[in-house]
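One-letter codes give the sequence; the fold follows as tokens. An example follows:
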Amino acid sequence: MIDRPKISVIIATHNNVETIGECIDSIWSRSFSEIEVIVVDVNSTDGTKDLLSEMSAEDHQIIFLADSMGSMGHARNIGMDHARAPYIIFADPEGYFSRDAIEYMCLELDDFSNADMFTCETDCFGSDSHGRTCEDIRTSIGDANRKDNRKQEMESRLIRSWMFDNITLYRKSYLYAKGIRFYEKPGYGNQDDAFRFMAMASGIASISVDVKYHQRIDLSAKKITDTTVVTDVCDEFKYLKAMLQKDSKLWWKMRLVYWQAYYDRNMQLYEKLSDDLRARLSKRLQADIKEAIIKKEFSRDHFDIRVRDKMELLMKSVDEFDRFQAKKIIEREKARDKAVRIDDRLAEIIVSEEEDELERLSRESAEKAEKLRKDNRLNREWLMDEMSRDMASLRLLLGITADEMGNLLGVSRNTYKNLESGKKEISWDQYMALLFVFRYNDRTSPVTDTLGLFPEPLKVRMKKGTNSIYG
């Protein structure tokens, strides 16, 4: 265990055995070791606990805790209570950080003593159960913000930052001074809405930094049938409202932002619910919004025009609202199925033309390699980038699947697919492992020379028994 860590990375998990290892691996930095990783597991049954026990036993910088309360919010509060560093960041087990992102964020916060938090861009990938991609969601929210004509009251910057689920680095002293904690009633979801809203509403506006956190969004097509879900989500916003109302000025300032968040979050939930629960949620939304209108807390004029139409329909009739939403969901599912068929056809074309593609890549890579040799700029970063771009074509030449390649490298199927698709950057160790695999095979060995993936300077260093950074 590090005596004085600079940052505590807190991860709450529940049945994340497929992704938690990749998430933790992405945290480490080549030149920054002042990190402690606190992982709190909530009743996992898929082997997550066993994996975390092994990882914490092998690495003293990983602290594994178990929580049986059945609440992601409570697990994060436990992690925060155990954190020893002055900076805290909460990561999700389904995501991963760009290379050296945490180190960079810490250094930035060091330089800005008047800021209490930094956010980094969240690069989402995947699609939800209705074919709505992350970009669809991001565009929809962005359009609503751009069309808003009451920015001074809504604080649109806060909406954009909060609604995009940005990963944020916090100064721990700020969180404790403001008494900001996670909602922790046992129930559905990540339970981080209230925490992030309060953190950004109560303090200095966060400053963005130029790093990325990569997050997979919900890919499950299984409908939620738990009748407590509707109450759980609405209760978290009740908790948030009570915290905001402790300061009447803060509540009045943030009330419109609160109601937009309330509506948007519940509509995201709406699409995941079974049909019978959708009607229940609609009735709950209608009742809460009508009460807010009476108290003059809520203004439909504050929403984007498309959302206002839905709100009018909801206020008029729950049944009509549900029929309208069901029609839209079916349309999205059809669009998703069409997109999947197109993607499958594109994949067939790519495979059929792999030899031509490899020849083109070989020519381009060889030209770049020659230019870099002349400029004396051959380095690790370039080699890793080239390997990342060419590894799919090389694997196809080997005639093996992505799963088989992942097994050869000793990484999970998801990790390898993310490496091959470019969603995750390959490390130098992974580069060397891939180079070994491709050099060992007769079909791909000569291609690595053509692509410039095994340059002469690296051969010399390997012969001499050295593997240092070279420039």
About this structure: The longest strand covers residues 207-216. The chain is about 60% helix and 10% strand. Residues 129 and 220 are 6 Å apart (CA to CA).
